[in-house]
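step=encode ok
step=design start
structure_in=
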C-alpha cells in the first residue's frame, strides 16, 4: 500500500524536518512514563491477552474481559475481523475515504466492495439511508471509522444508534474502528460494541496515547462464537502478544488519569494553532475535524497547481512531509495533515511551508 511504502519511517525521520504525515500523538519515551519492567518474566502470554489488561479495558467500558481480545496493534485486529468474516465474493460496505487496511484486506480476499463515498461537498457527513440501501442479502460487514481517518470528522450518538439498528435489522456485522475515540473534542461516543452483539469495536495504544512502538491494540465483541473465531485467527497469525508490550500498555492505562491530560492539552493547543492558520490563508479549504489529530484539507479548485511538483518541493526544499491524497485513493489535491506529532513550533513552520510550496508549484 502506498501509505506504507511512502511512510515517514520508510523515508527516514532524519530526512524530514517538519513531519505532518503522522496520524498519532508524538512518540513517547518509556523513561517519561514511570514504567518498570524489571520483574517481568518473558514467557508465552495468555493467547486472549494479559488478563489484567483485558480486565482493565473491559471494566472501563462496562463489559467482561471475555469480550476483549488483545492484538498486535489495531491493524492486525482489522485484518482478523476481515479474514474471519469474509470469503471470496462476499459483500462488504466500506466508507471511503478510509484507513487503507479496511479496504485492501477485503480486496485481497476477493470480496465485493461497495464504497460509501464520504464527500467534501457534503462535509464528509455519513448518509445512513444511503448506507442502508447499499446492504444486500450477501452483505456480511459494514466498516466505518470514527473519529474518522483521515478527515477527523465525527458522528453523533444518535447516528451511532441508527447504525447499530441498521446492523441488527439487516443481520450484518458493523465494524467500528475507534482508534481516535478518546481524542474526541466533545464527549466521546460509547464504545460501539457495548451496544449490540452485532458490533465489533477496534482500538489501540498507538494514536491517542503515542505508543505505536509497543504494538498493542484490541477488538471487542459480545458475540461469544465470533470471539472464538477471532481467537483462532490470532493464534494462527501470532499466537500471543509480546508480554513486554502488554505490560507497558497495562502500566500506562493504570496511570492514564495522570498521563493522558497532557496529551489532550497538547492536541487542543495544536488544533487551535491549526484553526488559526487555516483561517488566515487562501490556498486550502477543509472540513474542520471533530476529533483525532488529523485533518484532510484540499488545495482549492481555483488554485492551479502541479501537485507532483508541490509534494516534491514540500519535501526537498522545505523538509516537510504530509500524507498525499493517493494514500487514500483520493486526488492529490487532498492531503492528510497530522497535527499531534510535532511540537507547536514545528507544526506552525510545517503548515506555513505547505502554503509556500503550493505557491511555488502554481502555474
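sequence_out=
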Amino acid at each position: 500500500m502506498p501509505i506504507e511504502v511512502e511512510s515517514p519511517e520508510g523515508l527516514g525521520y532524519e530526512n524530514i524536518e517538519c513531519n505532518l504525515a503522522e496520524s498519532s500523538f508524538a512518540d513517547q519515551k518509556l523513561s517519561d512514563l514511570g514504567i518498570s519492567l524489571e520483574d517481568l518474566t518473558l514467557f508465552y502470554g495468555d493467547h486472549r491477552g494479559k488478563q489484567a489488561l483485558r480486565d482493565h479495558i473491559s471494566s472501563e467500558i462496562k463489559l467482561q474481559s471475555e469480550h476483549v481480545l488483545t492484538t498486535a496493534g489495531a491493524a492486525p485486529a482489522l485484518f482478523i475481523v476481515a479474514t474471519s468474516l469474509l470469503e471470496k465474493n462476499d459483500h462488504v460496505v466500506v466508507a471511503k475515504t478510509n484507513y487503507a487496511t479496511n479496504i485492501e484486506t477485503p480486496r485481497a480476499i476477493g470480496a465485493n466492495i461497495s464504497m460509501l463515498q464520504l464527500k467534501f461537498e457534503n462535509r464528509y457527513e455519513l448518509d445512513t439511508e444511503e448506507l442502508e440501501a447499499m446492504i444486500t442479502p450477501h452483505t456480511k460487514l459494514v466498516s466505518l471509522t470514527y473519529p474518522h481517518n483521515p478527515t477527523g470528522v465525527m458522528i453523533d450518538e444518535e447516528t451511532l444508534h441508527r447504525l447499530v439498528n441498521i446492523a441488527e435489522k439487516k443481520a450484518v456485522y458493523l465494524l467500528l474502528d475507534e482508534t481516535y475515540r478518546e481524542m474526541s473534542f466533545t464527549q466521546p461516543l460509547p464504545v460501539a460494541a457495548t451496544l449490540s452483539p452485532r458490533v465489533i469495536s477496534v482500538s489501540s495504544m498507538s494514536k491517542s496515547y503515542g505508543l505505536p512502538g509497543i504494538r498493542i491494540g484490541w477488538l471487542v465483541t459480545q458475540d461469544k462464537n465470533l470471539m472464538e473465531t477471532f481467537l483462532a485467527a490470532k493464534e494462527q497469525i501470532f499466537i500471543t502478544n509480546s508480554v513486554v508490550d502488554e505490560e507497558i500498555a497495562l502500566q500506562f492505562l493504570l496511570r492514564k488519569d495522570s498521563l493522558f491530560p497532557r496529551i489532550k492539552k497538547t492536541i487542543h493547543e495544536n488544533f487551535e494553532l491549526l484553526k488559526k492558520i487555516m483561517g488566515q490563508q487562501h490556498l486550502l479549504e477543509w472540513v474542520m475535524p471533530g476529533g483525532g489529530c488529523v485533518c484532510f484539507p484540499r488545495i482549492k479548485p481555483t488554485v492551479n497547481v502541479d501537485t507532483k511538483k508541490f509534494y516534491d518541493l514540500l519535501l526537498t526544499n522545505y523538509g516537510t512531509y504530509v500524507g498525499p491524497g493517493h494514500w487514500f485513493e483520493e486526488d492529490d489535491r487532498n492531503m492528510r495533515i497530522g497535527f499531534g506529532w510535532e511540537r507547536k513550533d514545528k507544526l506552525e513552520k510545517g503548515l506555513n511551508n505547505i502554503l509556500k510550496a503550493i505557491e511555488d508549484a502554481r502555474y
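step=design ok
step=annotate ok -> Residues 91 and 139 are 4 Å apart (CA to CA).
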